[in-house]
Task: inverse folding
């Protein structure tokens, strides 16, 4: 990059985007030829970018809430564009938040913004609404994608794409030694361990608790020495613990604080998990996993018609094959889940092959060349140069 300073304006309006923005700022700050400004939340403020723009009204959780908040969203879009135009940056980086950011980019184009518009995190057009790829290509100059399979959906519309890797892999989780975990919990060295992951949302707990606990009960009868443990996030811990006294099946589980999650994964022989981010974390750790998910009947009716991939787990979608067995809706039954878990417990060779395949696929998803934020920062500087 030349000695002339380049200015970059970073926009993030949701907590996950705010964290990504902060990580990106940390990577860009050491560069003496870059000036940073932006809109974000607490994480970006701690990283050194703060102003009076309030992102809290934009943390919209559902369709109904989005409709009610629409006038406020439009007002906040205009405020954001005013701030960007006043700053006159060489590039603006719009992080995630499809609905808000596409409105910002459209208005910037209409108002003659002369800098580069860079979108960080693509809309999930591989899952549904592929038309968004064409819309994005018309209104931004470059896309930084977090999935290795994103690019073809956008490049065919003329949008340059740089794959930077999934930031999820940059959490730096470093599991303990398997022996340490077992010693800490008085578990025999040769004992096998099943990790049980109910999910991180109350609705997931409600739908999966009964079939998961019944599976746990049946596995306990089949494998008396099997250790079964479940790490609970703060958001659902009280909900799960409230069932302990009235459901004897829960007493077959060792309930752990979330802080022990990765240590558990390092020792687990197999896992039974709600579909979500945790399945990718399990893949990183090479834990063969049986995946389950249940939606309300109405939501499932529409999802089945809109959702394009053949699989629900990101690992399987990325690999385009079933590295983790998946079960949905009526198939989420104790007899089905028990049999799927038992295959891994009874077949050492299958467990080893599955573990190796998961680790290899996770490495592909992470990408090469350092953290996602470091690669995103490098890509932005190249675009500016």
Result:
């Amino acid at each position: 990059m030349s000695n002339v300073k380049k200015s970059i304006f970073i926009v993030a309006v949701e907590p996950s985007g705010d964290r990504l923005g902060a990580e990106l700022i940390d990577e860009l700050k050491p560069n003496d030829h870059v000036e940073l400004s932006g809109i974000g939340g607490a994480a970006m403020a701690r990283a050194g970018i703060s102003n009076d723009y309030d992102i809290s009204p934009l943390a919209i959780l559902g369709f109904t809430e989005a409709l009610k908040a629409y006038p406020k969203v439009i007002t906040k879009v205009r405020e954001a564009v005013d701030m960007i135009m006043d700053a006159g940056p060489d590039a603006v980086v719009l992080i995630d938040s499809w609905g808000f950011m596409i409105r910002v980019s459209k208005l910037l184009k209409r108002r003659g913004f002369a800098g580069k518009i860079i979108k960080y995190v693509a809309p999930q057009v591989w899952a549904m609404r592929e038309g968004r790829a064409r819309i994005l290509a018309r209104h931004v100059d470059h896309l930084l994608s977090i999935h290795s399979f994103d690019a073809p959906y956008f490049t065919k519309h003329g949008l340059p794409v740089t794959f930077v890797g999934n930031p999820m892999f940059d959490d730096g989780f470093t599991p303990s030694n398997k022996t340490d975990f077992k010693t800490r919990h008085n578990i025999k060295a040769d004992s096998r361990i099943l990790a049980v992951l109910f999910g991180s949302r109350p609705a997931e707990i409600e739908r999966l608790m009964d079939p998961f606990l019944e599976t746990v009960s049946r596995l306990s009868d089949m494998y008396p020495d099997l250790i079964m443990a479940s790490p609970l996030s703060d958001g659902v811990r009280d909900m799960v613990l409230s069932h302990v006294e009235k459901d004897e099946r829960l007493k077959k589980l060792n309930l752990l604080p979330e802080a022990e999650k990765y240590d558990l994964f390092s020792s687990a022989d197999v896992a039974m998990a709600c579909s979500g981010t945790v399945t990718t974390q399990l893949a990183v750790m090479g834990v063969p996993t049986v995946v389950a998910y249940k939606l309300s009947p109405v939501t499932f009716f529409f999802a089945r018609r809109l959702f394009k991939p053949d699989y629900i787990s990101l690992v399987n979608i990325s690999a385009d094959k079933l590295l983790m067995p998946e079960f949905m809706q009526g198939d989420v039954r104790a007899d089905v889940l028990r049999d799927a878990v038992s295959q891994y417990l009874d077949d050492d060779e299958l467990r080893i092959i599955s573990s190796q395949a998961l680790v290899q696929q996770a490495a592909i998803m992470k990408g090469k060349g350092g953290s996602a934020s470091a690669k995103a920062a490098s890509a932005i500087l190249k675009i500016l140069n």
Notes: Residues 9 and 92 are 5 Å apart (CA to CA).
